[in-house]
């Protein structure tokens, strides 16, 4: 009986995941805390790379890459007391690149600050298509980045976040965290396997 119940749980989960792609996202704006137990958490370490290293695919193995215009920093005039690693514009006038996830995610948050109170625009995309989620928020950098100040999206299916700043005075990205969505194909195969095992067990019982 337990074997027979499991596929329905898998099928229910698959349906939930497909439904998520049409749901309305929760926009996270200037929140002090991140995700409770994320699949992946990247704090960019302390001195993992030399200051000024161009940053794109250094965390590809963790399921995320970055568009152009970022560099790795562990210190700077903007935040001289911040010693842990973070991402900074490769040039002060550069727009931030996208955050690309190698698998679909349901939630992604990150600490984000700018050097003035002008707004940043955040957009979530799925396979190059804009998800019905876009917001602009003031991201003033007067509050230390280490205190949190998370932005991002929750409760929707996406694999890219695009960012745009309205002025060119610099920005800082840190503490990226996200939840990976299990592949529906894997769950489907798992459910079919369990159904086959259940059917074989019933045939064996009737044969006896």
Structure explained in plain terms:
The structure is a single chain. The protein has one domain (23-181): Jelly Rolls (Sandwich), CATH 2.60.120. It has 2 helices and 12 strands, in the order H-E-E-E-E-E-E-E-E-E-E-E-E-H. The chain has helices at residues 2-20, 184-207; strands at 26-31, 40-42, 53-54, 64-66, 70-73, 86-89, 99-114, 119-126, 129-138, 150-154, 158-165, 171-180. The strands form 2 sheets. Strands 1, 2, 4, 7, 8, 9, 10, 11 and 12 form a 9-stranded antiparallel β-sheet that branches. A 3-stranded antiparallel β-sheet has the order 3-5-6, with no helix packed on it. The two termini are 18 Å apart. Mean pLDDT is 78; it is low at 1-22.
Poorly predicted segments: 1-22
Number of strands: 12
Put simply, the count of helices is 2
Mean pLDDT equals: 78
The percent range for helix content is 10-25%
Task: Write a brief caption for the model.
This protein is of the alpha+beta class and 208 residues long. It has helices at residues 2-20, 184-207; strands at 26-31, 40-42, 53-54, 64-66, 70-73, 86-89, 99-114, 119-126, 129-138, 150-154, 158-165, 171-180. The strands form two sheets. Strands 1, 2, 4, 7, 8, 9, 10, 11 and 12 form a nine-stranded antiparallel beta sheet that branches. A three-stranded antiparallel beta sheet has the order 3-5-6, with no helix packed on it.
Question: SSE layout and pairings?
Answer:
Layout: H1 2-20, E1 26-31, E2 40-42, E3 53-54, E4 64-66, E5 70-73, E6 86-89, E7 99-114, E8 119-126, E9 129-138, E10 150-154, E11 158-165, E12 171-180, H2 184-207
Antiparallel strand pairs: 1-10, 2-12, 3-5, 4-7, 5-6, 7-10, 7-11, 7-12, 8-9, 8-11
């Amino acid at each position: 009986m337990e074997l027979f119940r499991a596929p329905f749980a898998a099928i229910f989960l698959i349906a939930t995941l497909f439904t998520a792609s049409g749901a309305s996202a929760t926009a996270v704006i200037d929140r002090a805390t991140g995700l409770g137990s994320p699949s992946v958490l990247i704090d960019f370490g302390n001195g993992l790379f030399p200051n000024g290293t161009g940053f794109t695919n250094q965390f590809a193995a963790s399921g995320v890459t970055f568009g152009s215009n970022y560099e790795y920093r562990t210190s700077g005039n903007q935040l001289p007391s911040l010693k842990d690693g973070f991402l900074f514009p490769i040039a002060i006038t550069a727009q931030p690149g996208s955050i690309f996830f190698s698998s679909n995610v349901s939630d992604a948050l990150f600490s984000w600050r700018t050097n003035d109170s002008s707004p940043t625009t955040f957009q979530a995309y799925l396979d190059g298509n804009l998800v019905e989620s876009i917001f602009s928020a003031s991201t003033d950098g007067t509050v230390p980045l280490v205190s949190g100040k998370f932005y991002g999206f929750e409760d929707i299916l996406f694999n890219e976040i695009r960012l745009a700043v309205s002025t060119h005075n610099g920005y800082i990205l840190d503490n990226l965290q996200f939840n990976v969505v299990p592949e529906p194909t894997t769950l489907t195969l798992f459910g079919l396997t369990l159904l086959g095992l259940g059917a074989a067990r019933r045939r064996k019982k009737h044969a006896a």
